[in-house]
Amino acid sequence: MSKDTSPMLFVSHHSSKLGVAEHVEKALNSKGVRCWIAPRDVEPGASFARAIPSAIGESSAVLLLFCSNSAKSRHVERELILADQLGKAIIPLRLERIDPGELSYHLAASQWIDWLEQRDEAIDRIALKARDLQAQAANGNAKTGTISIDELEAKAPPVDITKPAASAGGVAGTASAASGAAATTKPPQPPLSAIGTDKPAAPRPPIREETATTPTADAAAPPRDAHPSEPGKASKLPLFLALGGVGALLLIALAYVIIRSVMTPTAITEAWFVGQWSDSRDCSDPVRFDANGDWIGPDGSRGTWSIEGGRTLVLEGDNIDRQELRMQRVSRNEVRGPEGSSYRCD
User: Fold this and answer.
1) CATH fold of 270-344
2) I want to staple 190 with a disulfide (CB 3.0 to 4.6 A). Which of 109, 130, 194, 336 is the partner?
């Protein structure tokens, strides 16, 4: 039988996103791209320590399904380190809009592909890049490190050879001429009356006696205010108005914060939700949610969990198919779901 020559991607993911990984695989298979997913593709009895490096070495690139759990996963970090060591490119597919955290070293130069809105376009671009990387490897020009998915589409702008380049001498000459003109142009001189002098000012001519006595007293005197204001009263009014305006703005801002905190439920993060929770206030039969995305029930049952969109608790486990519970954060130690409240026990 002939060996399958279609490009293969190693899918690095957290166990809580296995369903997404299988969905992405089906979409890429329709585009002629194979996917290797652990633990599904590990041969029975084979060692993970041998199977994963071998699969990364045979792949065209590593496709990272990035989410909050993978950002904290040591297994995902080891797979990215192996990809760097084996000279494999990394294609990051973002499932959640969060900070890369400890993986930022491996993804510092990446340009994300978002799975949240344009999924069909994301699949097309990943498949195109996988085939391009396979062709580069076949020609001995393999691309390593975190890559931008838009590298295939980036092209240098065409150069119009019919237009002569700008002359550096002409620009310099124009600048020199401008500076020379500025140097030769003298600023306007101030009037002589504005220029200081050491000579004393000319004495004013004396007022003749007849000009001082000719006008009447009523005509020469300035008009008087019939109701003079007390000193200092007028200067305080703007201060009182300013203080009143600031106080009104503070009251409006405080009312807005109170209304928003009452009407808008606080988002739930996975870091905040880690701990033990019980459906009763006395903390009987608590369920423990670990930071690595695993949960353990009071009867020993296990599974994985994650928070999506700051509102939805997603659970999967031994006897539980995928469940999505809409949650609302009521207080620091209480969340409210469709079947009632749960309380923090630690």
Assistant:
1) Lipocalin (2.40.128)
2) 194
